[in-house]
Amino acid sequence: MAALTRSSFTVFRRLVTQQYRCQCFWMQHVRCFRPVPSLSVACKRSPKILNSRSLHAAIVNRGPIIQFKLSDIGEGIMEVTVKEWYVKEGDRVSQFDSICEVQSDKASVTITSRYDGVITKLYYDVEATALVGKPLVDIETESSSEVIQEEDVVETPAMAREEHTHQEIKGQKTQATPAVRRLAMENNIKLSEVVGTGKDGRILKEDILNYLAKQTGAILPPAPSPAPTPPPPPATAVSPAAMLQAPPTSPKPVFTGKDVTEPLKGFHKAMVKTMTASLKIPHFGYCDEVDLSRLVALRKDLKPVAEFRGVKLSYMPFFIKAASLGLMHFPILNASVDEACQNITYKASHNIGLAMDTTQGLLVPNVKNVQVLSVLQIAQELNRLQVLGAAGQLGSADLSGGTFTLSNIGSIGGTYAKPVILPPEVAIGALGKIQILPRFDTSGQVVRAHIMNVSWSADHRIIDGATMCRFSNLWKEYLENPACMVLDLK
Known about the structure:
By secondary structure, this protein is α+β, with helices and mostly antiparallel strands.
């Protein structure tokens, strides 16, 4: 009897504490041996009838409304543009669910939830500017009081720069974005065992992939490949209709009759910063032409093989791999200098960027560690970057860390260009379109040749003309005689 009385009194004491006063229930199903005064609780929800067994579960499942703040996404970015909402008010979300997509002046980032709960408020409209450290959404959580108290500590202004990016592991604070934590969780990787290469030791997506590579012996985690299909039979004839290409689509002009002024933002704003910084670099230009006739024949033979493996093979993987082989002999072209031009850093990795023309503007994602990738692996990575670029979903990891750049202006139709160096890099090349032109062979006969023009720009503070010329000659030799690349492949 005494034990039962104490149990009933404990239940009643929980009802009147400040922690549970906001819960909704009726007292008629709580039996007590002593008189219990009626308790009235104001609540927005309809009252629920709970017995003493379900009382504890209901109390734990309810939680306060948390302001989910926009975390620091790195690179010194303080504001972003909200491009798309994946949730609306009233939607239920779980941890790692996508909330929205934001775009900075450097990359597009998908923001994911840290909590399980219900979205109660969206603070921004689409195309509005959101500030780092300010509330993004309100989430009515479903965590216990102990968890919420721990999260409240993370949300304090003193830790605004690191909120939403930390994970406590055995007393150590490991910095990683929710997307990286999810990738680690899906591959059963403990973040405490991964060495972060980002700012202040932050773990990046590449760190997870490199850790997987060491564990599995692969360069990149294996991607699901489509079911093998036999190579297509050789075409015997091509109809005239098949040779016609659809004209490129371009937006129709809109004439409003009024001047329109709007602020520069997103990638256009990033271009302003980058090009302003590049004006400080004295550019040295060098141009040459490359005979790709043998490479054209080689690609024609390898293209069906690559398609059989689910990879679209263009000329660009050969250009990138040849550049990497050339950088082995001329590492100064894969270097960077500090702002005062007093120190030079020779980069160990060949992270070769590819300038892409997208609907969002000029983007330059890069293929990481080209020096250890095969031509087919480079093509596979390029396919991934091109798909993300067309969808506007390139992340900061894909757009940062470049050490050398190639710009394929020929994909639009140009032949020569004057490429602008992207700081802190020291060299860049622009590739023209491939043209069939008459040339003389070794016996003096006129033959059809596939000619491509290349334009180089180098930082003349540390790179002289002779070095740029020798690199270009070596790169040209690899492409004009692709069999020579086999001798230097690793």
